[in-house]
Specification:
The complex is a heterodimer of chains A (237) and B (316). With 237 residues, chain A is of the alpha+beta class. Helices cover 23% and strands 28% of the residues of chain A. Chain A folds into 2 domains: 70 residues, Gyrase A, domain 2 (2-Layer Sandwich), CATH 3.30.1360; 148 residues, Cyclophilin (Beta Barrel), CATH 2.40.100. In chain A, α3 crosses α4. Chain B has 2 domains: 167 residues, no CATH class; 125 residues, Cyclophilin-like (Cyclophilin, Beta Barrel).
């Protein structure tokens, strides 16, 4: 297997397939994740798939980093996923008060706020990973014009449903947290609910398209979501 | 039913178990104890399984509780050199006792930042995503996902006959200011050799912003070779992240499961509790450790802690 094995302390191991946001790399991550889920390796606590690597948390009493690497080297990866490809349509609002950093991003990139919103909403994204906070969906497919570095210091917490960008990546934030990213808008859709099994709606490998809505529609959809209505929908292909 | 009533909760008191596992893949923070060694010691003193039992993590604000049960309940406390009293009588900083109906137990802050109060059989707060651990930022676990407040009532999971009282006298709870062991990687190649040298030779101080999520340290700048943006990857507890301000940020119990800053190394699990117990403004130093050193030190310590119940002396 063509991967780097990078210890993250004595109780976690990173299996890194590359350093880029690339669907092929991400499919390898998923293939390793499936392969590990399909067998019992003593000591593995859980795995965390990311854009380009799989983090394996393990109990060092039961297995060592070296033993784990040995086990993984021997695995055959099947990169063909048999899950159906789904595209979600998610309504988003780029108006105040949901677009706290839109003007700041536009100024930094030398674009108009409307152009930033347009570029962001017209792209189709791929779900690469969850991370950072419960239900935070990390996406690839952000237009290159919107590449902006992370903030040197985190900003105040963003509200649930915020659309964030930084470091050439995009994400949907599901709970309120401080972040080093920039907030362009928000969705009324509830993508994470601890009472659901699994607690998330969209799966790694799914596509996401945004549909721009105004403030009034946002409020109406938010009320519908609070009553249990499903706001995100799957587009017929 | 056996209950504990929180008479006074100082800032930072939460319900914690070993942590929320199996949901990091959905972005869920594990939480769990800041000082796992002290948490496990308090649980092992009572015969609890520390992988399952929930206890109170007492923060720098201390706590006072009372027993509202039909009979005596077994409790054990330790960690951070806190000062514990039962109905005003000193109990030292680490002991297993029984608390009779109406008796009060109070903890005042000590040399460290966190103490643990375990109860025989464990606390019976709601289970959320497989765990009772409190994560306040995502409002999950514990009591309504928040810190404990005056007047909270905590139920016990089981009626367990209390064991004899005794002082917990174990070497791993003693203060130790030797350098914290660090296993380099996975992104130590993002830093210049001079920056790594600085990290492993300088003294750092804990800044006032430290919380359960991360300990920010002040000291000399640790320069990146070029960028401080990486494509997000996984984070484990103890990760030493260096962001744009070039200062170390050590990810603690409430760490996010992933992050996008380069990680110079990880504080060895065996030493995480010592870092967690630092008070704001206190100094620390780091020393390189190999993977095998960190692992064998951890496994040895875990083995020792499991023997806690054999290290009880008569209560003074």
């Amino acid at each position: 297997m063509n991967a780097r094995f990078l210890p993250a302390g004595e109780a976690a191991l990173v299996v890194e397939f590359g350093a880029a946001i690339d669907p092929t790399l991400n499919e390898r991550v998923r293939a390793l994740d499936r392969a590990l889920a399909g067998r019992t390796i003593n000591g593995i606590v859980e795995t965390v798939p990311t854009y380009r690597s799989l983090m394996i948390h393990f109990d060092p009493r039961l297995v060592s980093t070296a033993e784990l690497i040995e086990e993984i080297r021997g695995l055959e990866l099947d990169e063909e996923s048999d899950a159906p490809e789904r595209c979600w349509v998610i309504p988003v609002c780029y108006e105040a008060p949901y677009a706290e950093d839109l003007a700041e991003v536009a100024a930094a990139l030398g674009l108009s706020p409307a152009r930033v919103a347009q570029l962001h909403s017209e792209a189709t994204y791929r779900v690469y990973m969850y991370g950072f906070a419960p239900g935070y969906v990390f996406l690839g497919g952000l237009p290159a014009e919107l590449a902006i570095s992370r903030r040197p210091q985190p900003r105040a917490p963003v509200p649930p449903g915020s659309l964030l960008i930084a470091g050439g990546q995009a994400l949907i934030a599901s709970v309120s947290m401080p972040t080093g990213w920039y907030n362009l808008g928000a969705t009324p859709a509830v993508l994470f609910d601890p009472k659901r099994t699994p607690p998330v709606l969209v799966d790694i490998g799914d596509r996401i398209a945004f549909e721009a809505i105004d403030r009034a529609s946002f409020t109406a959809l938010q009320e519908a979501a609070a009553k249990g209505g499903e706001i995100a929908r799957i587009r017929n292909r | 039913m056996s209950l504990l009533r929180v008479l006074r909760a100082g800032i930072g008191a939460t319900v914690q178990d070993a942590g929320r596992r199996h949901y990091r893949r959905y972005g869920v923070t594990p939480a769990g104890p800041m000082d796992w060694g002290a948490f496990e010691t308090a649980n092992f003193a009572l015969g609890n399984d520390p992988e399952r039992a929930a206890a109170i993590e007492v923060g720098p604000g201390g706590i006072e509780i009372s027993c509202e049960a039909t009979g005596a309940i077994g409790v054990a406390f330790c960690g951070g050199g806190f000062f514990w009293q039962r109905d005003g009588a000193d109990l030292g900083s680490a002991a297993r006792i029984f608390l009779r109906p109406g008796e009060r137990l109070a903890a005042r802050p000590g040399s460290g930042s966190f103490a643990y109060l375990a109860v025989a059989g464990g606390l019976n707060t709601p289970v959320e995503l497989g765990s009772r651990a409190t994560h306040t930022r995502s409002r999950m676990g514990g009591i309504e996902g928040r810190m404990l407040r005056d007047g909270d009532v905590l139920a016990l999971l089981a009626e367990v006959a209390p064991l004899a009282e005794g002082e917990i006298s174990v070497p791993w709870l003693e203060r130790d200011s030797s350098p914290l062991r660090v296993v380099p990687g996975p992104q130590d190649d993002y830093f210049t050799p001079a920056a790594l040298e600085t990290f492993f030779s300088a003294e750092f101080r804990l800044t006032p912003t430290a919380d359960r999520m991360a300990y920010r340290l002040d000291g000399p700048e640790i320069a990146h070779k070029s960028t401080y943006n990486i494509v997000s990857d996984g984070i484990a507890m103890g990760a030493i992240q260096i962001s744009g301000d070039r200062k170390p940020l050590v990810l603690m119990a409430d760490h996010p499961p992933t992050g996008g800053y380069p990680k110079l190394g990880h504080v060895a699990r065996v030493d995480i509790g010592r870092l967690a117990q630092l008070r704001r403004g206190e100094p620390c130093r780091f020393v390189r450790a190999s993977l095998e050193e960190a692992r064998s030190a951890l496994v040895d310590r875990q083995g020792q802690i499991a023997t806690t119940a054999r290290h009880l002396r008569r209560l003074r």
